[in-house]
Amino acid sequence: MGREYLDFDVAVTREGQGYAAHVLASPAGEASAPFTLPFTATDLAQFMVAVGPPRVSSRRLAPAEARAVDVKEYGRRLGDALLGGDVGRAFRASLSAAGAQDRDLRLRLLLDAVPDLDPVPWEYLYDSRLGRFLTLSQETPVVRLIDSLERPPAVPVDAPLRVLVMVSSPSDMPPLAVDREEQLLRATTGDLVASGRLTITVLDDATLTGLQRALLDDYHVFHFIGHGGFDQAAQEGVLVLERDDGTAHRVSGARLGTLLHDARTMQLTVLNACEGARTSGRDAFSGVGQALARQGLPAVVAMQTEISDRAALVFSHEFYWFLTRGLGIDAAMCEVRKAMAVSDEASEWGTAVLLRSGPEQPFSFTAGATEAADRSESRLESLYDAAQGAIQAGAPALALPLLEQIATQRP
Description:
The protein is an alpha/beta fold and 411 residues long.
């Protein structure tokens, strides 16, 4: 089921008092054009709050006020700015070239030289000529490429996909329903576990020491659930782990990456914490996700704003379902976004950021893994089982987005 992609690499750099977009590599060759961000800092801040959900219990370290926003208009303005002029012509020519080879086109953004543009939610790019958001189709995924000193090779993965989950709920932080979230994660992925495609190991010790010891075993994915945010004083993104006494321990991406760096089977980190992808605007590697990718972790999925429980539930089930069916991370993310886009929380599909540190697909599923997936139940059955799991876990409201997925696929 894996898609074959040609890459359209765009680097944004400073040019005088403004910016320029440079196509470094594409099926249509190189190109350059001026780039002007069509939003003020206030516009961006209001947009990021608006696409997030209202929450009583928040993963953010500081709350923000929500306002209405036109997601399509935002995406159109951003798309017209980036994919205009010679860059846009090269993009359309590359789409045609990819189609002629029966391949798809992956847009890879390089923003290392302009960290002030890193907080821009590029995942909402809308192409006016195609008439759609790029990231809502496997034909045009959008990836943020991080310049890493290492290029780790793809790791062959036999079923099951092994996921290490850390659930952190410090005693001196605002309470999160992390126990419930863990229960729902188990319940809604139970069908994947039962079919032999996935294993979930929950780390009881949410400390750095506990993580270090757990990483002596081989896992493919590290999935963090808990508080996250941006430390204004240190100007860096943090995850909130626990100390030995259960109190909060704010950990930067660089410190976390020190532990994950040597876990060579670890190919993906999922940060289910608010603002895990946010940077200082001055240092492109100050966000937790960016710092992990900089350390050579092949792929990181991090949230750039808050995400609702319902959206997080759809994300977890659909993401792991598509990964265990043999889709690459790029394509799986597109499918997850589509699933979220047709749910009630339609604006949250662009919350997740996919960061990659190298050109290779992190996962290389073996024949045995994909055959195991083919023998398992259909996606509709899997969604139904996941919804049943949510109901049995005492969260019938959270089963609704999964049932909505079934409704959208019925003929």
